[in-house]
């Protein structure tokens, strides 16, 4: 168990901006946030933690204006974080930007065989330290914060730069540091495009299966729901559940009476602003701009199920053999795009092409074959051409 962490608690604007001057001169800093969003659309930031070569500070965002934080995030300072996805959204919300340079220790761990480790697991794995977990689900917006809460928050960043050092050494040794850095850049790019209402339908699993006008309606309704959730600052599922969005898309109601018959909706959806918004979104579906044409595919036939199943088995085995997190390598959908020859397929680009895309292209073109290796595994090997008599 690690000992007590020393930190500075910053709740004064002048002190906060003076700290930013110190941090912006650092080559790298460790950062974490505490926030709530269970009942809101936007995350409510309650604490920001910084660690650097000279100290550790906890910033109280209920007392200071966080807008000046943008100049630190926009600088060349490397921001080291763990599981940064939602923290990036916090920064985007509180100061309008995300780090220009970021290293995610959870993401990077996937390149040395660790599957999305928690911060506590990474402390134990890399440093042999156990950090307290008791205050993880505490009320961070309550004031004053207890000593236990402050120690928990400080411990999240106290050793993060040391973990970063260890990961850099291991990634460099394995020749995978550039891969990890590419993934971090992709994460930042995804965050910059987050929460675009017109793309909201793609986050509803059942919506992606719809065709014809039902797809146009689901696009319109999902976009309206996203804007409505932001307007009233409620989670999208509290405005209308996914089942209700898909039900509306399938039935395309034009009246309140038709709305009442749709599965996934209840009484609060049948009246007032919600009902008006749903019906207006259905009507507006006909005015949507068409979706971009699907990326062209090389002709490999319509039924790729057998090839996708075989390649999926090989990719899973390859991931284990190379100590790569299978979820990091790609999804079944990514594999299907690769097998179908979709232009811009994720597995045909960057480090994934080197590890998976290139060999699979050899397999699909007939220049390589998969065989059992005699131990229950799969072996990809060059295929000998058959000479005719």
Q: List the uncertain runs.
A: none
CATH architecture assignment name of the largest domain? 2-Layer Sandwich
The name of the CATH topology of the largest domain is Nucleotidyltransferase, domain 5
Mind telling me the CATH class of the largest domain? Alpha Beta
Alpha carbon gap, first and last residue: 73 Å
Summing up helix and strand content along with how strands pair, one would put the structural category as alpha/beta
For the record, what is the CATH homologous superfamily label of the largest domain?
Answer: Ribonuclease H-like superfamily/Ribonuclease H
Order of helices and strands: EHEEEHEHEHHHHHHHHHHHHHHEE
Sheet with most strands: strand arrangement: 1-4-3-2-5-6
| Major β-sheet annotation | 6 strands, mixed
Number of domains: 3
Report the β-strand fraction as a percent range.
5-15%
How many E-type strands? 8
Give your account of this protein's structure:
This protein is of the alpha/beta class and 389 residues long. It has three domains: 8-192, 2-Layer Sandwich (Nucleotidyltransferase, domain 5); 197-287, Orthogonal Bundle (DNA polymerase, domain 1); 305-382, DNA polymerase, domain 1. The protein is built from 17 helices and eight strands. The protein has helices at 13-23, 69-73, 85-95, 105-109, 119-127, 147-158, 160-174, 177-192, 213-232, 236-239, 242-251, 256-260, 272-284, 305-321, 326-329, 332-340, 350-364, and strands at residues 8-10, 28-36, 44-52, 55-59, 78-81, 102-104, 368-372, 378-382. It has a six-stranded mixed sheet with strand order 1-4-3-2-5-6, with helices on both faces. Strands 7-8 form a two-stranded antiparallel ribbon. Helix 3 (85-95) links the parallel strand 5 and strand 6. Helix 3 (85-95) packs across helix 8 (177-192), helix 9 packs antiparallel against helix 11 and helix 14 crosses helix 16 (332-340). The longest helix is centred in the middle third of the chain and has 20 residues, at 213-232. The radius of gyration is 25 Å and the shape is flat. The N and C termini lie far apart (73 Å).
């Amino acid at each position: 168990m690690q000992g007590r962490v020393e930190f500075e608690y910053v709740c004064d604007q002048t002190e906060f901006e003076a700290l930013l001057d110190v941090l912006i001169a650092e080559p790298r800093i460790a950062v974490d946030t505490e926030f709530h969003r269970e009942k809101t659309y936007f995350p409510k930031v309650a604490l920001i933690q910084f660690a650097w070569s000279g100290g550790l500070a906890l910033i109280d965002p209920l007392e200071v204006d966080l807008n000046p934080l943008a100049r630190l995030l926009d600088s060349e300072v490397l921001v080291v974080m763990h599981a940064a996805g939602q923290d990036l959204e916090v920064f985007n919300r509180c100061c309008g930007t995300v780090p220009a340079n970021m290293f995610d220790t959870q993401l990077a761990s996937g390149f040395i065989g660790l599957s999305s480790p928690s911060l506590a697991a990474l402390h134990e794995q890399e440093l042999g330290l156990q950090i307290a977990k008791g205050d993880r689900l505490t009320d961070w917006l309550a004031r004053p914060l207890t000593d236990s809460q402050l120690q928990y928050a400080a411990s999240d960043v106290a050793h993060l730069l040391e973990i970063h050092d260890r990961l850099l050494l291991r990634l460099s040794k394995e020749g995978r540091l550039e891969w990890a850095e590419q993934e971090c850049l992709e994460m930042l790019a995804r965050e910059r495009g987050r929460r675009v209402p017109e793309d909201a339908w793609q986050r509803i699993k059942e919506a992606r299966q719809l065709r014809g006008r039902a797809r146009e309606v689901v696009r319109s309704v999902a976009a309206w729901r996203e804007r409505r959730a932001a307007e009233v600052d409620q989670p999208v599922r509290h405005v209308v559940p996914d089942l209700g969005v898909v039900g509306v898309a399938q039935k395309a109601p034009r009246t309140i009476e038709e709305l009442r018959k749709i599965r996934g909706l209840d009484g609060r959806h049948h009246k007032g602003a919600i009902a008006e918004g749903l019906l207006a979104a259905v009507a507006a579906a006909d005015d949507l701009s068409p979706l971009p044409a699907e990326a062209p595919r090389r002709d490999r036939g319509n039924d790729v199920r057998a090839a996708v199943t075989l390649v999926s088995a090989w990719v899973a085995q390859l991931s284990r053999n190379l100590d790569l997190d299978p979820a990091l390598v790609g999804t079944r959908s990514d594999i299907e795009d690769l097998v179908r020859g979709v232009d811009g397929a994720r597995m045909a680009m960057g480090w994934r092409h080197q590890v998976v895309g290139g060999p699979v292209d050899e397999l699909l073109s007939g220049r390589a074959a998969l065989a059992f290796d005699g131990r229950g595994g799969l072996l990809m090997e060059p295929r000998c051409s058959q000479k005719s008599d």
